[in-house]
Amino acid sequence: MKNLTNLGRILFALPFAVFGINHFLMMDYYVGMLTSFIPLGAYTIILTGLVLIAVSISILTKKFVRQSTLILAALLLIFILTIHIPHLLKGEETPTILIALLKDISLMGGSLMIAGIYAEDEKKKS
Fold it and tell me: Looking at beta carbons, which pairs linking 27-36 to residues 24 or more positions away fall under 8 Å?
């Protein structure tokens, strides 16, 4: 069972590293997704990319996992509230936007579950 948990943790973390790297490689695409009330434009994209990479490394190395997954859940909530929902409210109801919204909701749930598991592990150790 431990091997299954480790595999799940790795499979959960790796895409966030790729998403973070994509924030640098596809900057124009991500800047185009920003809504008007998100500050700093490209700097926000860079910061988000760095956070995604850092969270992925944290989960992969099992260092500060609870804190990192809580940060990740908060970041995903920000994506949902500031990117996906505004695009849907503008009437851009393409399957891509709905899929991205549902993906981020699902990943936020997974992130919160991991944070909860690591919180329980911390209680058992103390």
Answer: 33/83, 33/87, 34/83, 35/82, 35/83, 35/86, 35/87
